[in-house]
Design brief:
Oligomer: heterodimer
Helix content of chain B: 25-40%
Mean pLDDT of chain A: 94
Shape of chain A: globular
Number of strands of chain B: 5
CATH architecture of chain B: 2-Layer Sandwich
Mean pLDDT of chain B: 92
Largest sheet of chain A: 5 strands, mixed
Low-confidence stretches of chain A: none
Strand order of the largest sheet of chain B: 1-2-3-5-4
Low-confidence stretches of chain B: none
Strand content of chain B: 25-35%
Shape of chain B: globular
Chain lengths: 116, 146
């Protein structure tokens, strides 16, 4: 089953609402393309809402990391919102939980982005 | 729980993501039938998926001429899953540690680590050509990993 992805803007932050599975060949490619598209449009404050992501494999984790570093290297910020328990646990055991800025509330997540 | 022992079932599959999905689903069904809890079903099926991805992507490089085999066995005491590919072989000792600070932000390289985190035993065997990865979950033991 493919990943669902929708985009919205709140206070200068682009929120990608993701749902389903982020895995090799499915959601991982969609995620990569979506982040690249946003950066190409100059949208560098990106919040990935993972509240409906019920499964992520190591490829999906790799895409989250790649998205994070790509956005950061372009002077932007990418944060994670609403991790499910499974995704939270995977990021913990891969020692990535402290790499990402993880939020559990959208309003505070949006407020946390640096404002020019 | 131990479940009833079941004969080994083996599939020979092409090197595609459809095959990976099939192997993952079979592992999930096997784990569910063995009576393990939902969290353990998730860990087992994820570990098996990672092994299948390694076989298809890294071992066989999606070569349509190369096959992956996946066998599933419930011995009564353990679930034993074996995944083979026809690639050039893999020496697990050469794999970088994905938890090392210099590797933490790499975009790949976590599959074997997750397999080892989620299964009780993981064995590599070189087939010349190819690699066989054996994943074992002992039934009736405490949960591993996350």
């Amino acid at each position: 089953m493919s990943m669902k992805i929708s985009t919205r803007q709140v206070d200068g932050v682009t929120i990608l609402d993701l749902g389903g599975r982020i895995t090799l060949g499915e959601g991982s490619v969609q995620l990569r393309d979506s982040v690249r598209d946003l950066l190409a449009k100059g949208q560098k404050k990106i919040l990935l809402n993972l509240g409906e992501v019920n499964y992520i494999d190591s490829s999906g984790i790799g895409e989250l990391v790649s998205a994070y570093t790509t956005v950061r290297n372009q002077g932007g910020e990418l944060k994670l919102l609403n991790l499910t328990r499974k995704v939270h646990d995977l990021l913990q055991i891969t020692k990535l939980y402290t790499v990402f800025d993880v939020k559990d509330d959208e309003a505070s997540a949006i407020a946390s982005y640096a404002h020019a | 729980m131990t479940g009833q022992p079941e004969k080994r079932v083996t599939y020979t599959l092409d090197s595609s993501l459809d095959s990976v999905n099939k192997v993952e689903q079979t592992a999930e069904q096997m784990a569910r039938k063995a009576g393990v809890d939902e969290d353990e079903i998730f860990r087992i099926s994820m570990a098996v998926r990672e092994a299948a991805v390694n076989a298809v992507l890294h071992g066989n490089a999606y070569d349509p001429e190369k096959r992956m085999t996946a066998s599933f066995e419930n011995t009564g005491a353990s679930l034993v899953i074996r995944i083979t590919d026809e690639g050039k072989g893999l020496d697990p000792a050469t794999l970088p540690d994905p938890l090392a600070p210099e590797n933490l932000l790499r975009g790949s390289g976590r599959g074997i680590f997750l397999i080892r985190s989620f299964m009780d035993e993981v064995h590599f065997r070189q087939l010349h050509p190819g690699t066989e990865l054996t994943l074992i979950k002992h039934l009736g033991t405490a949960p591993t990993g996350a």
